Amino acid sequence: MKEKYYFDVFPELTSERLFLREIRLSEANHMIEITVYDGHQAQNSRDVIRILSQIALDYLNGDGITWGLYLKSTGEFIGNCCFCRGYQNNIAEIGYVLKPDFRGYGYMTEAVKTVTRFGLQDMKVTQVCAYTELENHASQSVLLKAGFVKTTHDEDTYKFISP
User: CA-CA distances (angstroms) from residue 160 to 20, 21, 77, 88?
Assistant: First the structure.
């Protein structure tokens, strides 16, 4: 089973209102509030650069890919969407975060659909999954609107899978 994914060129994706592309280190000041890696929240642009460097290493190692989300209308960075934690058994785990001012407008559902389609059609992963905390109803709503199905849960999380 394929558990690493390498790309000759970073795959850029588009949706109706979004452009999904590689995040540039020069954009670190615009993403402090939403940058987290392995549970560690960035406190300043230096932390963001350290985290972006780790994300880039994950990409180069074939263990993940993170797209920045940019509005087509303005080019503004609004969040990110990624495949993270490797691809055990050829399954991609999706993760995402959106700046608070842009929540509730369907941007993340649009991004999740776009990234999921890329994973299933272009990368040929067999499934895309996501995990949410039990109380994270907004994230659960995004996944359900994107066509995911809630399958299981433990005492802390729900698991969702692509159809």
Answer: 23, 25, 27, 16
